[in-house]
């Protein structure tokens, strides 16, 4: 069961108690500075930015706002940490792995000390915004590898800046409009539950969200009926409450974008089955929303919503749904639900997606490479393919003297 800061991750169906202590409701944040060389620093500019609790819209704290000089300082520290003969360079892969696991454990537990034995300069944290910190990192001549997760539009800018500076390697994990295909012979109970969790997990704010559900016409009406039942029962509320399955959206901008797309679905002729609006008396909460009678030309079927909205489309046969599923510029993930393995493998081969799940959803493992086709990015995270993204291959050729022993 995934946990964050001691709470059950919103969207998980498992109702077990949290494995870690729940945080205080005051959302006290003790550390708001920039972390470089195992020390906390104020930003060079002296600027700060506010962060808000999306449940209540109350300000939580102000965080130091990094900029190019702060990135330069972090890069300088990292360069020193990775020099030949440094403690980090002398540490073998097993030792590095142990430290990385320790860091992950402490981040999950919201502990105060992030260094956990890392030599100074190995781990640096510079809070900031894309046009400043992001741009500085993308164009920095001393950064040799950059991993970016975000929108396709910004991903293009990152890669452009990287190519104009030092041709640094870039791994991009970008947008998705992921097809979830439910065949008439599928286990409908399983398909309904997986599609529901697939789109509503983390309030729909997930790059892998099942945001285009294609259902074969023979079972379409029943699938819609059961999906609506699931959505209506979904507990929405305090993200620190173990009973909650859906919390607030991340910020006002995303909240407004989701509501705009919901309105577009209504105007363009989709049938609103449930939800369709904000919660009346709360912060940035949106009711779990299900649309049926959705067509490929509607905005909710083409644009990444990144919110708790499930568009359900109808299809007649396999060849048709393959063509429609592949019709968009995205190709991050896809899912297929069927009891026919030959059909599943045919679809998996034909779908233009970096990951295809069969009779499951969001089954992501550290050993399995993850990344997208087309405008959903390039390169891979996780697995051996991800390790290759962070390494350079060197060829060394030695001519031996014939008299050498």
Automatic annotation (TrEMBL):
The keyword Oxidoreductase applies. GO terms for molecular function: oxidoreductase activity, acting on the aldehyde or oxo group of donors, NAD or NADP as acceptor. Residues 1-23 are annotated as: Disordered. It comes from the Eukaryota. InterPro entries: Ald_DH/histidinol_DH, Ald_DH_C, Ald_DH_CS_CYS, Ald_DH_CS_GLU, Ald_DH_N, Aldehyde_DH_dom. Pfam families: Aldedh (PF00171). Residues 1-10 have a biased composition (Polar residues). Signal peptide: none annotated. Residues 114-396 form the Aldehyde dehydrogenase domain. Keywords: NAD, Oxidoreductase. The active site is at residue 173. The keyword Endoplasmic reticulum does not apply. Belongs to the aldehyde dehydrogenase family. This is Aldehyde dehydrogenase 1 family member A3. The lineage of its organism: Eukaryota, Metazoa, Chordata, Craniata, Vertebrata.
């Amino acid at each position: 069961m995934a946990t964050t800061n001691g709470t059950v991750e919103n969207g998980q169906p498992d109702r077990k108690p949290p494995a870690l202590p729940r945080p205080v409701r005051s959302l006290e944040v003790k550390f708001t500075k920039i972390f470089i060389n195992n020390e906390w620093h104020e930003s060079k500019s002296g600027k700060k930015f506010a962060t808000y609790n999306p449940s209540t819209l109350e300000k939580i704290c102000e965080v130091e706002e990094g900029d190019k000089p702060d990135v330069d300082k972090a890069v300088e520290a990292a360069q020193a940490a990775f020099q030949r003969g440094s403690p980090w360079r002398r540490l073998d892969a097993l030792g590095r792995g142990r430290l990385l696991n320790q860091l992950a454990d402490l981040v999950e537990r919201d502990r105060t000390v992030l260094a956990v034995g890392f030599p100074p300069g190995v781990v640096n944290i510079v809070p900031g915004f894309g046009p400043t910190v992001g741009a500085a990192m993308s164009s920095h001549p001393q950064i040799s590898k950059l991993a970016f997760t975000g929108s396709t539009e910004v991903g293009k800018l990152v890669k452009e800046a990287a190519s104009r500076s030092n041709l640094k390697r870039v791994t991009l994990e970008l947008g998705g409009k992921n097809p979830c295909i439910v065949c008439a012979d599928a286990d409908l109970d399983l398909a309904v539950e997986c599609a529901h969790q697939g789109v509503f997990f983390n309030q729909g704010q997930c790059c892998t969200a099942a945001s285009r559900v294609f259902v074969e016409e023979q079972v379409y009406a029943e699938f819609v009926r059961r999906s609506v039942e699931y959505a209506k029962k979904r507990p929405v509320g305090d993200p620190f409450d173990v009973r909650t399955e859906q919390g607030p959206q991340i910020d006002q901008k995303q909240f407004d974008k989701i509501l705009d797309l919901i309105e577009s679905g209504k105007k363009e002729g989709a049938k609103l089955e449930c939800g369709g609006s904000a919660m009346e008396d709360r912060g940035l909460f949106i009711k779990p929303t299900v649309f049926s009678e959705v067509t490929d030309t509607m905005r909710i079927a083409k644009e990444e919503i990144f919110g708790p909205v499930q568009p359900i489309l109808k299809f007649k046969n396999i060849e048709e749904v393959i063509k429609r599923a592949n019709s968009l510029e995205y190709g991050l993930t896809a899912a297929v639900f069927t009891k026919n393995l030959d059909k599943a493998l045919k679809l998996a081969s034909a779908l233009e997606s970096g990951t295809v799940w069969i009779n499951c959803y969001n089954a992501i493992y550290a050993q399995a490479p993850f990344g997208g086709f087309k405008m959903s990015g390039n390169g891979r995270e996780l697995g051996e393919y991800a390790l290759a993204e962070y390494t350079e291959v060197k060829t060394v050729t030695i001519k031996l003297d014939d008299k050498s022993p």
